[in-house]
Amino acid sequence: MGVSVSIDTEEDNWIPSLEGITVRNIRELPKLAELCASLGVRATYFVTYQVASTPESAAVIRELASDGTAEIGAHLHPWNTPPSCGLEPRISMLRDYPPEFQRKKLERLLEEFDASIGIRPTSFRAGRFGVGRSVIEALVENGIFIDSSVTPLISWEGDGGPSFLDAPTRMYRLDGSGEVPTPNDEGLVVEVPVTVGFTRFAPADWPRVARLLASARGRGVRLFGLASRLGLFRRVILSPETHSVEDMLLMSRRMIEAGEPYLHLYFHSSSLVPGLSPFVRTEEDRTALFDTLRRFVEGVREMADIRACTVTEAAEVFGPELSGVRAGTPGGDSAIEGPRATSGAG
Predict the structure, then answer these.
(1) For residue 295, pLDDT beyond 90
(2) Taking residues 236-242, what's their average pLDDT?
(3) What is the CB neighbour count within 10 angstroms for residue 330?
(4) Neighbouring C-beta atoms of residue 196, cutoff 10 Å
(5) Average pLDDT score over residue span 112-135
């Protein structure tokens, strides 16, 4: 069982901002790295332009990457990544920008990585999960073959974003010729989705349940909220920001029992400083987030033998066959022989 932890490594500003941008949360990443090391976790940090272009925060990212235990991926916030095309004050989904500017913004982000961090990422996550056909095409043009912008079983249409209700929970190949959630065995990009599931039902039935909850009938009777309040079932994103360790482990057990090979947990770097994200308001909340991460990894270890992976390593080991993909770590090829943690239950 592969287990990955990825962090949207971004500015302090939770609301999309063009001015007054700060990155003080990046100072807290070494503490997170210490926890990851103690758990045997090989984190993936998806880094924005604002973090990469600020000397102090870029230095932190270089240090995190220096020992080869973490991967540095690209995270694109189109509203404050140059060049500007005039849409930035009102559009936050990368897929809604003209394809030319999707490509130009990605190229500028990668140039900043080269200049400030000394790394050429091969993994990517769109800000606000705003991925689309032209985004995938731009990734391929720039040598990025791993995307992690999909949250299966969730629709972001209410926020002007894509719907992933039908997206597979497993990794799959895709390209720019069809809708992003649709697998294409000939695609050049491997999608490594964030893990999302339900606390009940077989994983094979989860897309049908998700569509029912999102349907006009399901919304009309507020089926999702009713089921959650009654304790019948809950939809769970593997994130210590939004769900309890009990629910995350219950959903993970469903996936393990169904033979799913991989779990992918994520959260935001802004949650490392109380008051910057809506998920962590107090010091107690931050302590709880760290504790939830620790208890989750330890809990999964009790259910299965686990292999801690960066996102690129997970794609290489547990995803569709890859060739020629290099991880965003110093020293070239990804370290597939990462630490292996085994279950204490035997």
Answers:
(1) yes
(2) 97
(3) 14
(4) 22
(5) 97
Torsion angle, alpha carbons of 331, 333, 334, 339, to 10:
-80
For the chain, the domains span 2-197+238-331
168 with 181: CB under 8 angstroms? yes
Cα gap 239→261, rounded to integer Å = 18
Say what angle helices 29-39 and 283-303 make with each other, to 10 degrees. Answer: 20
* Strands 340-341 and 235-237, sheet pairing: unpaired
Domain 2-197+238-331 has CATH 3.20.20.370: yes
| Average pLDDT value over all residues in the chain | 90
Give residue 53's identity as a one-letter amino acid code: S
Secondary-structure breakdown of the chain: helix, strand, coil percentages, each rounded to the nearest 5: 40, 15, 45
Determine the pLDDT at residue 216: 56
The predicted structure's pLDDT at residue 214: 83
Task: For residues 46-75, give the mean pLDDT.
Answer: 97
Distance separating alpha carbons of residues 20 and 17, to the nearest angstrom = 7
101, amino acid identity: F
